[in-house]
Design brief:
16% strand; Spore Coat Polysaccharide Biosynthesis Protein SpsA, Chain A; globular; alpha/beta
Length: 237
Amino acid sequence: DEDDGYYLGTRVMAYQLLHSNSAGTNNSVPFLVLCTCDVSKRKRDRLKADGATIVLVERLDPGWIASGQERWRDVMTKLRLFQLIEYSKICFIDADVLITAPLDGVFFDEATLTQATLPSPANIKEDEGPLPRTYMFATHADYWGYDHPYPPTTDLDYLNCGFFVFTPSLVLFDYYLSLIKVPGRFDPQFPEQNLLNYAHRRDGNMPWKVLWYGWNVNWPTEKDWRGGARSFHAKYW
């Protein structure tokens, strides 16, 4: 177990969100951990004992998409979160994120308001599934390196999907699946991240919205922490 950084990171996150006096969230907000059957029952039981709600899902076949990195083998399964329609909003957090302050307020961020899907005919393709009438998808840009300003600029177009807030939708999930079935529709180097960048491109019909910069920082530095950022996307193990 000590060699499984993502498992240990998830256990640390369970403590941070559910038990920490300085970083914990409201007790009414459940901590969901998405697992495939590849995660042993022993590990799932340990996470459940830590307070997590285990959501066991089937792997999502990535089809033509292959990143070439073994650790990203199952990242497309992340899209199954959009099937959890019993929740009105979900904040997804990668297991390699360190949380240092409460994140409850992210659910009330203006960027998480429901948006009407735009009707531009140019963005409706015959080989893609139908779009939902409304959607909500909010996140931060990828900063691509440690040499970034804080607060960051807001004119970046490429999103990072290590931390995002969304409203689950079966129509949206089916739309994502339709993209997986079209070879070459997006660059597979970063599989689910590039799929979401295509689906929620700024000039598309479901553009992503920008969360307040302090909720999460990718490529974090001490400057970000001193500036008041609340969570940091970096492998700290």
